């Protein structure tokens, strides 16, 4: 779970340093040991050679007989011991430093998935990423053949064969270019490429790669075994095709012409919009954008007459507003400091095992802060009530969230769609969301509204505000939103969710939009140009 928040990855640098120092030390010692071993070996070789030239004479010499026996007993013991010490030393590398943090293989898989998520969301070229470039800017040092191979292997193990193939292809190219010693061979990379093709249903290409492997390593056991297997599948497929053409399969004679454009599922459609919004490629419709404006907020509370708040309409009907400078840098620092020790991953119940497992749809760490425990938190709640005009009587505690690289939250509603037992104590559903941005984000990390086509890019100190419910109390489906993966930097936000309880006289309910949840969409009234 280390990859989810930058604050958790930081301690790994200490681990890294320790391992580097140990390896340095190990290599010096190992080299000394190898010098001794090589000297021994040279003596052995010379000795053996002279023995072979005249065996009876060599063995007839009692000193020679003794040294031969000594070399193959006590000397050999010493050599074996020396080799063992070498490996023992390195074996203890992680045990020696049990006080530092080590990532697990799950962390590795998580980091690999985060990388593919970024690659897919932001349309990044694998070849660019492998060179350490991001959107044309040098981002990190280029990845080695070994890095690409490990990443490919991790993705393969996660059954993401398409991306495994992309990374293995680059690994192979780099392997040939680098010409460096590695613990894996060229045929190992080729095997992953071949097998990924096979698992993606392209048996012919899998066969080509297997043959390429055999050209390099004619005795490769698995490759030799796979060739007849692949040939058999290809022959069977061709036979099926022939029979279908002849019409003796009982199947339709007419070959099925695939739809020109395969139908996209609603989920896939939303995904497309989400990705475009994350990349900042969509603008809100013109009839909305022409009504957008900013102003100073002075109503709702007398306090605002003295200190008006800058507000900007980002969307109308449903209104989505940004309030600027509503958190100071000092407040942000205090909130971060308080929340950090409470950070937990968002979890869901595994449907099979019933265990709590990290949620894949929401990758971040979060913690809750209560008004009662800090004057800063209480002040923020009061400020929310000033600029929203809503009662905080049944508001939730402040939820503080940190997203690391690749951290995201998939499209969702903030309101509960069923009766949520957890919401009972709040007297009703989440009527409104206030989302504070506690950091700017260098690249990525927008909040996007997939039904509206709106992207909000984080501005430190600002807060987004919108109503989640129609006046009828029905959830407003137009408020569906998501947090895009962070590409560079770290993203901090905090949520204040305000509930229906306490708003009875501030926002009285009525029957507007009541039918929307019945599946019928009632057109919204033309947006009013101002409130
Ligand atoms: O982080 C964001 O931009 C949105 C977070 C969000 O939607 C949530 O926490 O419910
Ligand atoms: Fe949300």
UniProtKB/TrEMBL annotation:
It is found in: Endoplasmic reticulum lumen. The keyword Ribosomal protein does not apply. GO terms for molecular function: iron ion binding; L-ascorbic acid binding; procollagen-proline 4-dioxygenase activity. One of its GO terms (cellular component) is endoplasmic reticulum lumen. PROSITE patterns: FE2OG_OXY (PS51471). Its EC number is 1.14.11.2. Its main location: endoplasmic reticulum. The keyword Metal-binding applies. Its cofactor is L-ascorbate. Residues 394-500 form the Fe2OG dioxygenase domain. Keywords: Dioxygenase, Endoplasmic reticulum, Glycoprotein, Iron, Metal-binding, Oxidoreductase, Signal, Vitamin C. Belongs to the P4HA family. This is procollagen-proline 4-dioxygenase. It comes from Leptosia nina.
